[in-house]
Amino acid sequence: MPRGLNVEGLLARYLDFPGFIPGFVPGFVPGFVQRLKMLQRLISSFGAAALVCGTVAQAQSSDACSTLASSLSIENVTVNFAEFVPAGTNITLSQNYNLSTCQRPSQVVYNDLCRVAMKVATSNRSEITLEAWLPTNWTGRFLSTGNGGISGCIQYEDMAYAASYGFATVGANNGHNGTSGIAFYQNDDVVADFVYRSLHTGVVVGKQVSEAYYGQTHNKSYYLGCSTGGRQGLKSVQDFPDDFDGVVAGAPAAAFNNLTSWSGHFYTILGNSSSPSFVPTSLWTVVHEEVLNQCDLLDGVADGIIEDPTLCQFRPEALQCAPGNTTNCLTSAQVTSVRQVLSGYYGVDGSLIYPRMQPGSELLAALIIYTSGAFPYTTDWFRYVIYNDPSWDPASLTVEDAAFASQKNIFNSQTWNGDLSAFQSKGGKLLHYHGQQDPIISSDNSPRYYDHVSNTMSLPSSSLDDFYRFFRVSGMGHCSGGPGAWQIGQTTLGAAGNPIEAQNNVLLAMVQWVEQGIAPETVTGTKYVNDTVSLGVDFTRNHCKYPLRNTIKDASRYKEADAWECL
């Protein structure tokens, strides 16, 4: 097994990629008693999080929840049901209407709550499925979750996570069901729901539902999402600055059309298994080993983690097969493929379409993108949105196609507006993070967006710090997983076993920033042995605020957070 790699269980965490089953590796899900203790500590730790009394006492009853279905009256909203769900319930979720591809057949609820399922019309030919989870331990806070990929899947695991902390929580299906993009075909209203309208509509309606249930408005509004959910968070900051007081956006799929072209261009480089340019999974393992040989020590520690991949300029020619050798080496055609894969993607006029895939992500990227044929999100986006042609062949993708997709930019799906002044002016806070070993969305794109905001707003980092902070999480894969200290409180998995403190939890860090004015300087990540909490902590690391870089002070103690400093 390659250095620093723990493959077991990682693929299950890529919840927004079709074919990967969402689930929990052993030791991750805290018991219900532990969850109650976590909630008690949370409530006692934050003065602003004290339970709202009075009308909430009535809302805690199952009767209040069941009557909500008949009493709720909101334009364009049809309530399917409202039911009281006791803590510890494992909800069985319908898998009809393409939802089986979401692979979320059930979800454990950690605390008592009222579950409200709704249908919300967004036009005469489109609608969203929306759920609100209204906990009895409400803290006065509202939160919206996001989505993944191009899917129409409510991320129930995120709803349960947020609700467990006392947030009145909403989640929507992005205007269609399942992981396919076929619902976009010849229906721009469904595309509009996906790009921006589902999330915004869910927030507007969700706040009304919350007020009707609790008898008073929320105190603060938050957002938590990663991948497409990260893009949705940025879209809200850019276009709907009043929706949220605090946004946590992970691995955002910004420059979305260009990202989609980039995701598809690997197929045109590598081809299929019969192509001379194809690099099989076994050789990507060899490539990964050589990447570590060349770049792991750039940070002063050989731990299987490239702390800052922007410093790694990988030379695949080191793996060129010598005459007569065909073992654990690359042919000339394969060397060319690897170099193209790990290089920036440039367009017809020489301008950058999308930055390179960062070195270090090869093992999972090989399984998800490099060796699996045409990338399904690219295929669906071009077939059903860009060209409205179900016969479009992903093998024919060219830089001209990428340019056309970028120019079409339907409903400003690019999500690349660098002017965040409206969000800044209203006092909003944005916490952006990105794993530096992401096999789906290159981590090189996130500092590019941060720098774009800095340039657009003519603000140096010292000024951006007031409302926008970006953290690079070394060794984290796509939103979770990887050999690094990736558990930063971004999900139930990301919070399992961690101290219930803002330093170790990006969601709580955002609450502290918004409500107490204490901004995070670093985010502490945890890595458990074999990613299993019961086996104990392997190491911790403080992840730095961009543009600072983690630098080792004492290599003999590299597993301790204070052995590093941000410079």
What can you tell me about this protein's structure?
It is a single chain. The protein is of the alpha/beta class and 567 residues long. It folds into two domains: 352 residues, Alpha/Beta hydrolase fold, catalytic domain (Rossmann fold), CATH 3.40.50.1820; 155 residues, no CATH class. 32% of the residues lie in helices and 17% in strands. It has 17 helices and 17 strands. A nine-stranded mixed beta sheet has the order 1-4-5-7-6-8-9-12-13, with helices on both faces. Strand 8, helix 6 and strand 9 form a beta-alpha-beta unit. Helix 7 runs antiparallel to helix 12. The relative contact order is 0.12. Its EC number is 3.1.1.-. It comes from Phialocephala subalpina. Pfam families: Tannase. It catalyses: feruloyl-polysaccharide + H2O = ferulate + polysaccharide. This is Carboxylic ester hydrolase.
